Protein: Cytochrome b561 bacterial/Ni-hydrogenase domain-containing protein
Amino acid sequence: MDSTGTCWQDSPHGYGVVSRCLHWGMATLFAWQFVGAILHAWDREAAVTRWFWSSHGSLGAMLLVLALLRGIWGLANSRRRPPADPNIWGRLSSAGHLALYALMVIVPFVAMLRTYGRGKGFAVFGVPVLEASGQEIPSLMAVGNALHGWTGWLMLALIAGHVVMVAVHQYVWRDGVAGRFSRTRRTARPRRWRCRWPPGSGRCRPPAIRSRGARAGAPASVREPSSWLFRGAGACRAPGSCGCLAAGSNSRWRRNQPHSRARSTR
Structure:
């Protein structure tokens, strides 16, 4: 972290500048690629389709290089990154990310194999990368024709699922996971979970989530959060403090209650 507080590397509380630039840069390029692919499947002869499709191969090669760099950077920061949730959602998230990383490499790689198999050569924005051999290799062409199309659409489906789950984290669970790619400082923290029950009750919930159903023995104004929204863990372990565990984080937070401060001043 430099003197301005900018974190270039990842941390348990969020992703650094390098990871964020790779993530959003590749997201922009993939959006361009899939818009061109959808237009190409709809009408190959349209002028707008030709405009998007003219850079499809070059951007694919660029995305292959960026995916490899992103994988290397991810391995180098694997022990610094925020840990996954130890539940079924965390395991599904890890599996989905691994599948996306694999497809980011497989999809452009098989396309380059097909291009090489056609013997036409390959250039990235006018810079020759593969020389034209003039000889077709049917086996490489068959691999590219068989894999490039459906693996590309599979990657689009995984990206759509990824976007949906980000929205769920941000607007339904409200656990601060989406903020990991929007903060650059190491001091950034997930959304804090605050205690809503009397000390010692062991009940915590995020402040923005409305609840329903009164807890047995609690005042009418105290409500228990809905089970499908309740993702917190931890407990109010001592009078005057809350030890709630923020979802998606391994850090425990304590917050002094007003009555605790009043006791300390007596």
